Amino acid sequence: MQEPLFLKSVLQEKIWGGQKLHTVFGYDLPSDKVGEYWAISAHPHGVSTVENGEFSGHKLDELWANHRELFGNTKGDVFPLLTKILDAEDWLSVQVHPDDAYALKHEGELGKTECWYIIDAEPGSEIIYGHNAKTREELAEMIYDERWDDLLTKIPVKKGDFFYVPSGTMHAIGKGIMVLETQQSSDTTYRVYDFDRKDDQGNLRELHIKQSIDVMTVPAKTPELDIETVSYGDSSVKTFVETEFFNVYEWKVRGSIKFEKNAPYTLVSVIDGKGAIIVDGKEYSLVKGQHFILPADIPSWELTGNLDIIASIPGVNA
Ligand code: ZN
Q1: Same domain, 254 and 180
Q2: Fewest Cβ atoms closer than 10 Å to its Cβ: which of 43, 91, 159, 212?
Q3: 256 alpha carbon to ligand 1 midpoint, in Å?
Q4: Are residue 272 and residue 208 in the same domain, yes or no?
Q5: For residues 240-256, b (16+ Cβ closer than 10 Å) or e, as one string?
Q6: What confidence tens digit (pLDDT) does each residue in 266-296 have?
Q7: pTM of the full structure
Q8: Which residues are catalytic?
Q9: For residue 307, is it within any domain?
């Protein structure tokens, strides 16, 4: 039976989180400081559950294990992707993630290449993206001497911007920014600097200086993006990245647009607007904040209404 898998997922409290996951997207928050909604996830730290249809109540990791046909019988021990929405009421830690080889050896999971679509940003918002060290020795020296202003590259961001953040990239999402993050299914973060801030119990969060120096790309490399937009009447499809891990798209629906699948399965996040998806003659209404997977048995679909969507598919090596 062809039907989208609508998902309900897990919220994560964070020292830097806020209330916008409720005020903007309507999720019920468990506390004052919620930083992340793991919207499409089979990672053990927060697994999504199907809310509708034949697989209602099933968890995504279990579907991956026992119903691989939904994912086109693609290979792999773990569902490779993770979609999050982040609300940075304050700066996230300055951090770096390992690649697959390092993460598998030291952490027993995938590495983490990620990318960000900026859902919204308060005026003057910035991110940290890259660093100025020329050699690994210089990187270590600048970290141990806490020369953050010399070391870290800050850049301004606005709504609609997109950043590709390969493993090995120094980065931090800044205060006042909401992000849709598409990433490898991994929860390994090496913190370089956490602004010396303490949690409610007065504790500093752990830093991982040695691992950070090990895995950082030095000198920093800024990926060149080749963003392409194709228009279909008033609607459009924008391709942000096509990588070995994932391809990420923006679908702007203004009226109606038909799609044919270009991958075994597709992850879909409605970040703004209202409308519907029509699958196999059946219409499902859509509003912002919904997330679903189009499994392998859905060859085509139609979107109608006024919708801003971020979609992703697994990359060739995912
Ligand atoms: Zn990160």
Answers
A1: no
A2: 159
A3: 35
A4: no
A5: bbebebbbbbbbbbbeb
A6: 999 999 999 999 999 999 999 999 999 999 9
A7: 0.96
A8: 191
A9: yes
